[in-house]
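Q: Convert this sequence to structure tokens.
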Amino acid sequence: MQMYRQPMESTSLIEDLRKAINGEYSAIQCYEKLAKNAPTKAEREQILEIRQDEINHFQTFSQIYVSLTGQQPKPEITEECPDDYRKGVRASFVDEQETTDFYLDIADKARTPYIRHVFKRASADEQNHAVWFLSFLTLRG
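A:
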């Protein structure tokens, strides 16, 4: 009788996971700062909702990392968050756009259906976040 085994994930996936975990950790910190500086209650609430998505991504990616490596990740802030609200929103927009593509690349490389699904879903979330940040930049002028 042959046992079913999960496909082995590549070392590059583990490196990508580390980068994704650090990116989410950095975003969580940044969006807390942005929410505090948001000019309206509506923007603050939306940023906090985006921040909660990032917390969820961070937790899910961390669980995947532990399942693949047997170790807890050691997250680090890898991206600085500007103190100026508008600059922070602009940087967040660019970061969310880049992260959308990065997560799709991870999904394409992943051999495990669950990991593919998680990163495709996270990519869609990141694209949605980018649209929100863009709206904050364009609706205010």
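The chain is about 75% helix and 0% strand.
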